[in-house]
Amino acid sequence: MLLERIYDEDLAQASYLIGCQATGEALVVDPRRDIRQYLELAAHHGMRITAVAETHIHADFLSGTRELAAATGATAYVSGEGGEDWQYGFEAQRLHDGDTVALGNITITARHTPGHTPEHLSYLVTDGAFTDEPGYYLTGDFVFSGDVGRPDLLDEAAGGQDTRFLGAKQLFASLKDAFLTLPDHVQVYPGHGAGSACGKALGALPATTVGYERKYSWWAQYLANDDEQGFIDELLAGQPDAHAYFARMKRQNKTGPALLGELSELRRLEVTEIVRGLEAGTLVVVDTRSPDEVHLGTVPGALAVPGGAAKAATYGAWGYDPEAEDTPLVLLAPDAEAAGEIREHLVRVGVDTVAGYTPTFEGLPHVVPSTVAPAALESFLAEHQDAVLVDVRNRTEHAEGHVPGSAQLNVGKVIFHPDQLPAKDTGPLVTYCQSGLRNTVAAAALRRAGYDVVELEGSYSGWSAWNAQQNTPQTETAGAAR
């Protein structure tokens, strides 16, 4: 048996390829929408992808189940559990608790593990060439290394009303009945790692075991003592902000993401073409440079995706809403290959309208983003009494310490919740995050949305260092008092 983990550092998301080496058949679980890597991996191992499955209706990325099945002719499998409200809207075979998928010598058994979502499936894998007992468990967003999937996303991002409590109860039951009943040696392969917003304490380890989680996870003591309420209380406390784009992912994954087909190479756009597009409002530039470079000058109305492809899906989904607009994007990239890699990340979150790329901003309009130094913040706010301080970090970070007078609105929500911001013509927004990276993304998106934005230099770290310096008694140097 072959088991390969395909990990996306951008979204902290894991897909898996399981293959039977005897027959050359392979199954992919929870694929992304950019499917090139799965096709290349299967070809590398001399296998053909005959089945594609997903664990649940994802909230943090667009599923590639339909895309990969269409490209390979594989059978698509999705959950048929969860009741009428949680049925997929596209053609695929439905799996219920106990159903199996045969893959040569391998048997994949679906287990209904609700809690994170009502329809959630996990997959037990039995390598029939060696044993008739399962040895591997693909748990999706059910069990992570050191954590479990949060049950409050339906409330936070999908418009649910107090669904978190039922979800937490279901999760307790799933752990009790569908996880802890397994032998300790069963290896667990989760759908996310550290950095994902699908839990609050995800570990960075790529895999764990039933026995390790039974003994060392934070939730183990509650299951051992049959303390459901204690489990629920700790599970729901301190969950991070859910990004606003999660609601769109849920809707699109339920109905079935649009098929992309084979992506052609992006073309380089001429400067004159970009200038005309900017003037007509028919193009949006995506600045992929570092925050320091962006603050030296950028294109007016540009979005910020610092670091190029590395976090393009995350930053792109924070700053651009394809349901609100479909203006094509122009990516700053050195060549077509680099631009294509950025596009692959963007389509993972449904940002599909990429027109082309430019390797340089030379000849394009230029603007320097407004900033204010920590030392000048107090006088700036006194001069602009209608200014509003906005902390774009997570609510947990804000609770641990913030610039006095600031309101908290996570970077993943700023353009999606104008009701939580003042009117655009009332005064400037002074924004900050922890170090300035997230704030660069947020500020660019807000400026594009029409807000007057001034960024706090150094963000909270810079302000904290300056504030500490002001409150530290200064030692007199020799002769200073003379």
TrEMBL record:
Looking up SUPFAM superfamilies in the UniProt record yields: Metallo-hydrolase/oxidoreductase (SSF56281), Rhodanese/Cell cycle control phosphatase (SSF52821)
Pfam families associated with the record: Lactamase_B, Rhodanese
One of its GO biological process terms is: glutathione metabolic process
Listed A to Z, the keywords are: Hydrolase, Metal-binding
- Rhodanese domain location: 279-331, 383-472
Give the highest taxon in the source lineage: Bacteria
- What GO MF terms are annotated? hydrolase activity; metal ion binding; sulfur dioxygenase activity
Task: Please indicate if the UniProt record lists Lyase as a keyword.
Answer: no
InterPro entries per UniProt: Metallo-B-lactamas, Mito_Persulfide_Diox, POD-like_MBL-fold, Rhodanese-like_dom, Rhodanese-like_dom_sf, RibonucZ/Hydroxyglut_hydro
Q: What is this protein called?
A: Hydroxyacylglutathione hydrolase
> Which species is listed as the source?
Citricoccus muralis
Lineage at the top is: Bacteria, Bacillati, Actinomycetota, Actinomycetes, Micrococcales
